[in-house]
Design a protein that fits this description.
Length: about 325
């Protein structure tokens, strides 16, 4: 229950909560926390992946499952209406940059159409839905002249994944300003933690390579700069923001979430290398990445000053927990 003591348990007890993207990295951990808080959890699931943490740990048997897709309005509307949803945590998306680059249409369908379907269903059922937290990304900012990103910067994504996140973010703002939906937007950098099975990402891919006694693969030149935030910190921040939506002053706002310690890809590989005792092994640098911004990181000053909330898990401790999860999984 570490970290959950900062949350309002009475708020969540018995609350009807819809989670989209529950089979993903953050969604799986978010569901764990919601179940501990005694919420009534409903998830919208397109593909049943038995390797997803949601299935592996058995949480799937403790909640209601709506089989459907975000890009089907009727599926989304049914989930909200038939389960009397009060709070929505919208994480559902296609989240891999290179997947979007290879075939952008499916990413646009999931991330853009999926978001406006959800928001339109919420507009129709304003009598039910009391809080909507939308997962955005640092990618929504696109490439800016100065760093770190702050919430007052324009959203100017250029490549397919960035554009999909810019659009979803702007759609959320539109539904707040036009229809007064109780929305808050959270923008994160790179999220890591146990349960991420997208092996092309640097953290799980590197851990698996070292576990197999192989040199890890770096698609870039290793010098790209990013925020790296722990999934448990991220999940609890979504829950905290949902609680705070009872305050109308934060409705329609966006908040960055970061530990404000940006690191290069090589830095992250080095930390994993040290923790796993693989100093004799060295990454293979391909330098072949396409459609990615070289440096991105966020200021979390607004979240800290306005809401007195910040990341709690130090990077090395979080990475050690992550390595332990993958050791059990890969064994």
């Amino acid at each position: 229950m570490e970290g959950l003591e900062r949350l309002n348990h009475k708020f969540w007890n018995g609350r009807n909560v819809l989670v989209t993207g529950a089979t993903g990295l953050v969604g799986s951990w978010l569901v764990k926390d919601l179940l501990k808080l005694a919420a009534r959890v409903v998830v919208l699931v397109r593909d049943a992946n038995p390797q997803s943490e949601l299935y592996r740990c058995g949480d799937i048997d403790r909640l209601a499952v709506v089989n459907g897709e975000l890009d089907s309005f009727l599926d989304v509307e049914r989930a909200i209406n038939e389960y009397d949803i009060q709070t929505i945590l919208h994480l559902g998306a296609q989240t891999i940059v290179q997947t979007a680059h290879r075939f952008p249409l499916s990413t646009f369908e999931a991330n853009i159409r999926g978001t406006y379907n959800l928001l339109e269903a919420c507009r129709l059922h304003k009598d039910l839905v009391q809080q909507i937290v939308v997962a955005s990304s640092d990618k929504a900012y696109g490439e800016q002249a100065s760093l770190p990103y702050t919430e007052d910067m324009p959203l100017v994504g250029r490549h397919p994944y960035e554009v999909s996140k810019s659009c979803a973010d702007l759609l959320s703002q539109s539904y707040y300003h036009s229809y007064q939906l109780p929305i808050v937007i959270m923008r994160c950098g790179n999220i890591f933690g146990g349960g991420d099975l997208n092996w092309s990402r640097i953290v799980p891919g590197t851990i698996r390579s070292f576990f197999r006694k192989e040199n890890p693969i770096i698609r870039s030149d290793g010098k790209f700069i990013r925020d790296y935030v722990y999934v448990k910190d991220v999940a609890r921040t979504y829950l905290f923001l949902a609680e705070r939506l009872v305050d109308e002053k934060i409705q329609g706002e966006a908040f960055n979430f970061s530990d404000e310690s940006p690191r290069s890809v090589l830095d992250i590989v080095g930390i994993i290398q040290k923790l796993m005792g693989c100093g004799h092994m060295h990454p293979e640098i391909l330098n072949c990445v396409q459609g990615e911004i070289r440096s991105q990181y966020l200021s979390a000053e607004k979240l800290k000053k306005r809401l007195q909330w910040e990341a709690r898990f130090p990077l090395e401790r979080a990475m050690q927990e992550t390595i332990e999860w993958y050791h059990a999984f890969l064994s």
